Amino acid sequence: MGARASPSRRRQAGRRLRYLPTGSFPFLLLLLLLCIQLGGGQKKKENLLAEKVEQLMEWSSRRSIFRMNGDKFRKFIKAPPRNYSMIVMFTALQPQRQCSVCRQANEEYQILANSWRYSSAFCNKLFFSMVDYDEGTDVFQQLNMNSAPTFMHFPPKGRPKRADTFDLQRIGFAAEQLAKWIADRTDVHIRVFRPPNYSGTIALALLVSLVGGLLYLRRNNLEFIYNKTGWAMVSLSYIHGSSQAQFVAESHIILVLNAAITMGMVLLNEAATSKGDVGKRRIICLVGLGLVVFFFSFLLSIFRSKYHGYPYSIFAASVLAAPS
Are 93 and 132 spatial neighbours (Cβ–Cβ below 8 Å)? Predict the structure, then answer.
């Protein structure tokens, strides 16, 4: 048989129950339910975040840039929870929009996203997406955006700040500049890998082969190249042999040579500052360099023919020097 509680113990238990405030049990029950609800809400957020990251990683495994419409934009970018950064290119690539800048910026954006996708540092903290105007008009209206292309960074927490919009007008849209901007906003450093482009090399090789082939076919009739008398006759016809006089035609020749040199410098500057295709820029650079070197050499040759004893030239001795 169980031992009975002594009268003193029963009196102490009665006193403890008497000191509990009225209504404390419903309060404790409400507090317990609130803790359970908060724990369940936190678990639900974690599950939702895991599902979003898993879906984004699946899309990234298939392509480096995934396209988004209004619903996807609101779900994966605007709606919490989110622990990843999202780079979004707002563009208009449909042919009827006739946005050539959008196509050029898209090529650089693809290079950047591919460099991140195949990088050893690739992780689930940064993703690249695109919203086309014809697929997400409501997104453009929601952000009060009326120009394309535009690059924006959506941070893991909070709303985008002013610096989260890429200054395309001032910096340009080269992949290297975009990578630097992303590093400033996310601390994620992307090393840009450009695919090899041999179009400029092939074009130069074809040109050299063509000239070489023509010279080979005329190999028995190349004496005119080494005929100084012929070059001297050309020089005497249009270039005065003295530094004290100048023909009218000579002035026109100098004008044309300077114009050609200036054109070469313009092409070199265009190749260095433009944001177009790398192969085209390489060809423009080679053409500009050829113009500068070739025509400046002719200019020096004319100078040597007028100022005898002038020691400098780009090519071999004086091409236009008249015989003494």
Answer: yes
Per DSSP, helices labelled H in the chain are: 7-19, 24-62, 70-73, 100-117, 137-142, 168-171, 175-186, 199-217, 223-226, 228-238, 248-273, 278-306
Residues forming beta bridges with residue 132, ordered by sequence position: 91
pLDDT of residue 113: 93
| pLDDT tens per residue across span 162-199 | 899 999 888 888 899 999 999 999 989 999 988 776 66
- What is the average pLDDT value for the chain, to the nearest integer? 77
Instruction: State pTM to two decimals.
Output: 0.55
Q: Which candidate, 67, 75, 79, places its Cα nearest to that of 134?
A: 67
> How many Cα atoms sit within 13 Å of 196 on the Cβ side?
3
Nearest-angstrom CA–CA distance, 82 and 86: 10
The two three-digit tokens of residue 248, written as one number = 């009218």
How many CB atoms are closer than 10 A to CB 234? 13
Rounded to whole angstroms, the Cα distance separating 107 from 115 reads 12
DSSP string, 213-236: HHHHHTGGG-HHHH-HHHHHHHHH
Cis peptide before 81 (omega within 30 of 0): yes
Residue pair 190/119 in contact (Cβ under 8 Å)? The answer is: yes
- pLDDT tens by residue, 105-132: 999 999 999 999 988 888 889 999 999 9
Distances (CA, A) of 42 to 37, 85, 214: 9, 21, 78
Beta bridge partners of 117: none
Q: Which residue has the higher pLDDT, 144 or 232?
A: 144
